[in-house]
Amino acid sequence: AYNFIRSMTARGHMVRVVSADQDKIGLPNHYVMPILSLGPIDGYVKKVGVTLARTNKKILTEAIMGADVVHLLLPFGISRAAIKICRRLKIPMTTSTHCQAENFTSHIFLERSKIANHLTYRNFYTHVYRHVDCIHYPTEFIRQDMKKHGYKNTNDYVISNGVAHRFIVNRTSKPAELSDKFVILFAGRYSKEKNHAFLLKAIMNSPYKDRIQLIFAGLGQLEDQVRKLGAKLPNPPIMRYFTKEELVKVMNYADLYVHPAKIELEGISLLESFACGLVPIVSSSKRSATRNFALYPENLFDHRHPLDLTKKISYWMEHPDIKERVAKEYAQYAKVFDFEVCMDRMEKMLFDAVEISKKKYGRPQ
Predict the structure, then answer these.
(1) pLDDT digits over 224-264, tens only?
(2) How far, CA to CA in Å, does 192 sit from each of 36, 98, 295, 316?
(3) Cα–Cα distance between 17 and 51 in angstroms, integer?
(4) CA-CA distances (angstroms) from residue 148 to 31, 89, 120, 125?
(5) 8 A C-beta contact, residue 195 and residue 224
(6) Minimal CA–CA distance to 272: which of 347, 184, 186?
(7) In what order do the strands lie in the sheet with 182-187?
(8) pTM of this structure
(9) What is the DSSP letter of 262?
(10) Whole-angstrom Cα distance, residue 21 to residue 29?
(11) Is 30 in a helix, a strand, or coil?
């Protein structure tokens, strides 16, 4: 979100940001909603890493008044309230699809329920997506997935969220304490759908487990559980939050990137790893877009069997010459996701929405 905001601001646009981030109070062009309390489950929501907003219509209307276009990020409370205001004021709207149904249903233990996921998608469509002028899909995978649930009559734009220019190949030496280790990186919040446990099981079965050092970059509600599982390895995983600058350094000394997530819209950290010259191994899960990024069979593991991931990791450890060649191919492939190119297309979508709105409302902009 902030990459998008910074990019549009740098292009000369005034960007007003509505959120529930209390640390943004008082900043120019920031409109901060109060936090929604859910009582006994507030602690769980905090661990998930989400801040839920309690909509203040006065603040929201102030933010929207005079805008040429309003972009919605998530199909929740603020967006639903914003839609009513925008329709009344005849202001164009666009939205991004940053939430799969499973991102919600996994927290109520129904991520495998087709009915629950379908109803969730229909709820998103009924209250948000059918009202906007343009929809941004980060991948063709999620566009097709949502179409299966009846999303229709929309102006679709498949645009990657983009890889920032700081993510480049600049291979560096490992820290001294990791110099004799084969470093495997995974960046993702510690949550059920990211599937850290699967990767830990694969390493436990590896004949090279004494040499392997996992790095789990992230935060999340399952941190204690992941640490407990990881403690069984000869080299427990390094687990902490990394800034983008720190992550670039890690990606440039790591040996392999493994993305075990079973539910994934795009996997931007995966694309960032390509740009830094890392070879990936990704899940074959049909609920994840990452399977479409496997250039070779050795870059894809069967999401049902940890032993298959074990074998794929062993393959890349045993064939460093092939890994070096494929790393160059992935670094070249990453150029497709160049951030500025993606932002050019996002900006065009915003202008398109204005043109579409002119025809719909028959008014000058």
Answers:
(1) 999 999 999 999 999 999 999 999 999 999 999 999 998 88
(2) 24, 17, 27, 27
(3) 15
(4) 36, 32, 13, 12
(5) no
(6) 186
(7) 238-240, 212-217, 182-187, 256-259, 280-283, 300-301
(8) 0.77
(9) S
(10) 13
(11) strand
